[in-house]
């Protein structure tokens, strides 16, 4: 063990002993022949004098309010999934189209981006699509057709719940839009 760890353990033991003994009785300090110090609640020798400890500092805190009364049998328990449940349910949320590094030729600069999960989206959930870093609110559904210039583009989607909390995000997909020159 490192010396710092040993020192910490000794201090913790001292405070544990001192607080327990403070409640019970007296504390004695023993200086051993090698110079090490030991604290104990046992009187080491007849005539030994107890050590006067500083009073413990206590910080008063406000008492938290009492928990709400349990729901009666007639009231149904909340069936709303927690944020953790939602994250688990939509852990497979991903962009399904286009594929990463896919190239689109001759599509009149239109690309359809699709996303999905094995779970259907719950009421109030929405998808925000980020195209080249710009957020675009996606209408209810699982795809959006984009009009894009030629070149490289990046897209990812973020799934948000009714409270606008981020539940899941897809990996970024990079794709390319290429068109033949108008000169051909």
Range of helix content: 10-25%
Strand content: 25-35%
Q: Report the strand count.
A: 11
CATH topology of the largest domain: Immunoglobulin-like
CATH superfamily of the largest domain: Immunoglobulins
CATH class label of the largest domain: Mainly Beta
- The secondary-structure class comes to alpha+beta
Q: Please identify, by name, the CATH architecture of the largest domain.
A: Sandwich
Helix and strand sequence: HEEHEEEEEEEEE
Strand count, sense and closure of the main sheet? 6 strands, mixed
SS element count, helices = 2
Overall tally of domains: 2
Compute the CA-based radius of gyration.
Answer: 33 Å
The residue-averaged pLDDT reads 79
Report how far the terminal alpha carbons are from each other. Answer: 77 Å
Q: Keywords for this structure?
A:
184 residues; Immunoglobulin-like
Gist?
By secondary structure, this protein is α+β, with helices and mostly antiparallel strands.
Protein architecture, described:
This protein has 184 residues and is α+β, with helices and mostly antiparallel strands. The protein folds into two domains: 3-40, no CATH class; 83-178, Immunoglobulin-like. Helices cover 16% and strands 32% of the residues. It has two helices and eleven strands; from the N terminus they run αββαβββββββββ. Strands 4, 6, 7, 9, 10 and 11 form a six-stranded mixed beta sheet that branches. Strands 3-5-8 form a three-stranded antiparallel beta sheet, with no helix packed on it. It is elongated, with a radius of gyration of 33 Å. The mean pLDDT is 79.
């Amino acid at each position: 063990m490192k010396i710092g760890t040993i020192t910490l353990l000794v201090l913790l033991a001292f405070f544990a002993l001192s607080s327990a003994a403070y409640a019970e009785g007296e504390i004695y300090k023993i200086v051993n022949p090698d110079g090490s110090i030991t604290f104990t609640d046992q009187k080491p020798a007849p005539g030994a004098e107890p050590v006067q400890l500083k009073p413990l500092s206590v910080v008063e805190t406000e008492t938290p309010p009492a928990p709400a009364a349990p729901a009666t049998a007639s009231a149904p328990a909340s069936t709303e999934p927690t944020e953790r449940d939602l994250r688990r349910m939509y852990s497979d949320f991903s962009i399904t189209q286009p594929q990463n590094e896919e190239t689109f030729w001759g599509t009149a600069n239109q690309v359809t981006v699709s996303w999905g999960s094995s779970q259907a989206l719950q009421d109030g959930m929405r998808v925000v699509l980020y195209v080249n870093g710009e957020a675009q609110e996606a209408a209810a559904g699982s795809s959006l057709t984009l009009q894009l210039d030629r070149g490289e583009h990046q897209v990812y989607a973020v799934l948000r719940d009714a409270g606008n909390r981020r539940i899941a995000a897809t990996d970024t997909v990079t794709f390319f839009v290429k068109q033949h020159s108008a000169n051909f």
